[in-house]
Amino acid sequence: MSINCEILDLRAFLSVVELESFNRAADALHMSQPALSRRIQKLEQAIGAPLLERTTRHVSATALGTELVPLVRRMLEEFDGSLFAVRDVGPNRGGLVTIACLPTAAFYFLPTVIRQFNEEYPNIRFRILDLPATDGLQAVASGEVEFGINIMGTSDPDLTFERLAEDPFVLAARKDHPLAAKQWVEWAELEPYHVITVHRSSGNRTLLDAALAKSNIKLRWFYEVTHLSTSLGLVEAGLGISVLPRMATPREDHPFLITRPIRNPEISRTIGVVRRRGGTLSPAAERFLKMLIGVWGA
């Protein structure tokens, strides 16, 4: 089913939501309030449902309108960016890439790829939403972003997952910790020590607990945190050891911390690209995704 609406209809809707007023939105768009109302009515008729709730003193988005806001905002930003970029050709062409990315990948891996990409396409801008796994999937599903970098685990039939790499769980400890003298460790060797882990609501924790349960292994979690970076801070302070994805660990030249592989069993999370099934990417996003796959797979 096709929906017939104009860019100005979308601008009208977004302005009313952001300004919470028909009067202020009309002034911002330099149009009369009746003309603005007609734009909103046209958009609601095209979609087939109300997008705004109106009272004498207040206006707000309906549940459907709230879902549409991030998608409409991204569409308008991409449209505006295309207008400025249309006269450019080749590597000078501009554009906007909007992605959702796991915080660990956004911090430790993504900057390297973006730097390489910007050397070739210096006018393409990025909006990066560094979100936990579940929130990142929702951002892709809602259209708030063009694609996501996430861990495998989605069962949403509207999303596709393309594997990029395996990210093994490893031990993080201080260099003066007894386990630091080993080249690798087994899970059973962690038992005597205070283990720091992320909260059970985390996708990483869910994956790790499930894999350990299959091998009848249960670790004694002593500290539980929300962010992987917090667990590293506790490790550095000498409060315990941590099990976390290798991508979330510090560089090899860290002054205080080391990482070691954990075996029997070896457990990893699968990192990949999440997209809407049947969806299309902007030219800028297509080019970046091609480089991302090339660099990550190298």
Give a structural overview.
- By secondary structure, the chain is an alpha/beta fold.
- The protein has ten helices and twelve strands.
- Strands 3, 4, 5, 6, 7, 8, 9, 10, 11 and 12 form a ten-stranded mixed sheet that branches.
- Strand 8, helix 8 and strand 9 form a beta-alpha-beta unit.
- The chain is elongated and about 75 Å long.
- The mean pLDDT is 84.
- This is LysR family transcriptional regulator.
- Belongs to the LysR transcriptional regulatory family.
- Keywords: DNA-binding, Transcription, Transcription regulation.
Q: What's a concise summary of this model?
A:
The protein is α/β, with parallel strands linked by helices and 298 residues long.
- Average pLDDT: 84
Total number of helical segments? 10
**Given the helix and strand composition, which structural class is it?**
alpha/beta
Low-pLDDT parts are: none
The count of β-strands is 12
DSSP strand (E) fraction? Answer: 15-25%
Instruction: Give the end-to-end Cα distance, rounded to a whole number of Å.
Output: 41 Å
Rg calc: 24 Å
Shape: elongated
- Provide the succession of SSEs: HHHEEHEHHEHEEEEHEHEEEH
Main sheet attributes: strand count, strand direction, barrel closure: 10 strands, mixed
The percent range for helix content is 40-55%
Domain HTH lysR-type: 1-62
Protein name: LysR family transcriptional regulator
Family: Belongs to the LysR transcriptional regulatory family.
InterPro entries: HTH-type_LysR_regulators (IPR050950), LysR_HTH_N (IPR000847), LysR_subst-bd (IPR005119), WH-like_DNA-bd_sf (IPR036388), WH_DNA-bd_sf (IPR036390)
